[in-house]
Inverse folding.
C-alpha cells in the first residue's frame, strides 16, 4: 500500500513561492499516478493538478496554470508542486493523492497548510 506524506506548506506573502513535496512510501513514484488537491473549510475539495504514472500531466486547474508546476523525482520517490505568484485565494490545505490510475487516486496524505497573506 502506498502512503503519501506531504510537506512544505507554510505562510507566505502574496506574490511569494512555496514548494510542496509528496513522498510516497511503499512503491516508487513512477509506479502510480498522483494528484494534488486543495480544500478550504466549508468548500468542496478542488483538483489542482494530476500527473499520470508515465509523467504526463492529465489535468491543471485553470486557476493555477502558469503559476504552479508539478515535477517528479523518481530516485527520491517524491513528487513536487512548485507554487509561484501565490495569491490569497490559494490559501487552503493541500493534499497529495496517489493510485494506479488518474481515476483511482485512493491513497491520501494528511495534508499541508498553505496560507497566503495579502
Amino acid at each position: 500500500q502506498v502512503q503519501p506524506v506531504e510537506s512544505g506548506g507554510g505562510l507566505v506573502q502574496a506574490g511569494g513561492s512555496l514548494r510542496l513535496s509528496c513522498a510516497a512510501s511503499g512503491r516508487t513514484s513512477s509506479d502510480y499516478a498522483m494528484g494534488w488537491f486543495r480544500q478550504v473549510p466549508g468548500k468542496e475539495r478542488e483538483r489542482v493538478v494530476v500527473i499520470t504514472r508515465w509523467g504526463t500531466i492529465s489535468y491543471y486547474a485553470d486557476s493555477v496554470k502558469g503559476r504552479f508546476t508539478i515535477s517528479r523525482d523518481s530516485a527520491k520517490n517524491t513528487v513536487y508542486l512548485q507554487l509561484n505568484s501565490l495569491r490569497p485565494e490559494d490559501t487552503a490545505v493541500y493534499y497529495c493523492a496517489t493510485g494506479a490510475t488518474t481515476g483511482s487516486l485512493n491513497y491520501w496524505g494528511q495534508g499541508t497548510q498553505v496560507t497566503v497573506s495579502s
User: Anything to note?
Assistant: The CA atoms of residues 69 and 76 lie 18 Å apart. The radius of gyration is 13 Å.
